[in-house]
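Task 17 of the worksheet. Students: predict the tertiary structure of the chain below and write it out as structure tokens. Keep your answer in the requested format; marks are given for formatting as well as content.
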Amino acid sequence: MAMTGNVRKAAVAGSWYPSSADALATAVDRHLASADRADRKAPGELVALIAPHAGLMYSGPVAAHAYRLLRDRAFDVAVLVGPSHFVGFEGVSVYPSGGFDTPFGVAPIDADCARAIVAATPMPGLVREHRQAHVREHSLEMQLPFLAHLAPGLPIVPLVMGYQTAATASALGDTLAVALRGRKALLVASTDLSHYHDAAIASGLDGVVIDCVSRFDPDGLQAALDVRPDHACGGGPMVAVMRAARLGGARDAVVLEYADSGDVSGDKSAVVGYLAAALGTFSP
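Model answer:
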């Protein structure tokens, strides 16, 4: 796929994850092999994943529990929804065409699907191009080591949410449900959970999110975020994806794994929480 000036350069390759394809494949495969030992399956139709976005050594062991479900499944497009950590703005920024560079090659953007999402919004200007929001943002980039390795060549639509208001999350969920109708799409909500509390406090805060996800309750999650937005840095993207998945026919939610950064670093005094979950219609 020949692309020149429309490819978003990787921002954290070589620091948050290996910059060479061989080294990255080795790291990803190691995390997948560990996750495979858990043997938590979700047979049936997969509609969406929730996965973390910290450095690969920290959140990779959890993300692998979500992405291992891509094996033996095929999709037309992956729609990635994550928070903006560096640029504040209203609404949602779409990277409309071209691709995202990865050590495995360029992940192409499905421009037709991106246009359909922009056209489907019930709020004028909800989804628009704002490239600056993507330049440094790692929340979507950290999904690509797994996605590009397990589903090479799968087109993506990158969406970064600015201010995570309840109205934006709800409207984006509705928009995605309409735009993706008739497409075999994988939705991915990129989020870490609570930040820099000790592990006991973090477990309590994160448990609220985990409970809402396990009950497939986007409204309950939004209510919790309204009270304490620090439950998750990507709470809005999570609500939007859960809502879109439900409107798209998903009935079941499975929490696959939870851990915190202290499980890797050994420091339990100030941790970041990580969650992997799947939404779809799964067999018992």
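Marker's comment: The radius of gyration is 17 Å. The chain has a mean pLDDT of 95.
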